[in-house]
Amino acid sequence: PVLRLLEAQLQDQRRKHEEEMEALRKELNAMEKELHEQQETSLQALQLSPEIQVELGLQQEIIRLTSENMDLKESVEQLEKNERKLKNQMRIYLNRVQDFEASPNLLPADRRPHNSNTQVAVPRKGKYFQGMLEYCKEDEPLLIRNLI
Fold it and tell me: If you ran DSSP here, which 8-state letter would residue 114 be given?
């Protein structure tokens, strides 16, 4: 009984091994075929005139750049989406701060600000800009009004 069980397991393992070997042989044949096709293409490219070689090179570069451009567009879209989300959050927090400043009576007496002209200090990161300002075209009237 034990010997038959071990023999069955061995045959099962042998069958699995043969199936794996067959799959690997097929994969190897497919890779060899692909390599052969690539070699033929390379040989044909070498036999082509220099103008055609340049044109093929340019086509490959255009394909690469187009792919890279699409990746960058996706990245920009994601960043713009994140920017809109953060702007919305900023507006919500700004409204909350303005509501808080407008109605300090809603807080308990020990947490009310002592001065009615209390300004909210916004911590800034260590960036220092000189004369640089980035803004959206739609925000231009608001920016000018605030500057004046």
Answer: S
Asked whether the beta carbons of 53 and 45 are under 8 A apart, the reply is: yes
pLDDT tens profile 83-115: 999 999 999 998 888 888 877 665 555 555 555
Query: Chain-centre distance of CA 130, in angstroms?
Result: 30
Determine if the pTM surpasses 0.85: no
Q: Which amino acid is at 33?
A: K
Looking up tokens 């070997």, which residue turns up? 21
Query: Using only C-alpha atoms, what is the Rg of the chain?
Result: 35
111 DSSP 8-state letter: G
Token code pair at residue 29? 């044949």
Report the alpha-carbon angle 13-9-5, nearest 5: 170
Amino acid at 98: Q
4 is written with which tokens?
Answer: 């038959």
Sequence-ordered list of residues with C-beta below 8 angstroms from that of 113, at least 6 positions apart, any chain:
104
Closest to 148 in 3D by CA, of 97, 6, 140: 140
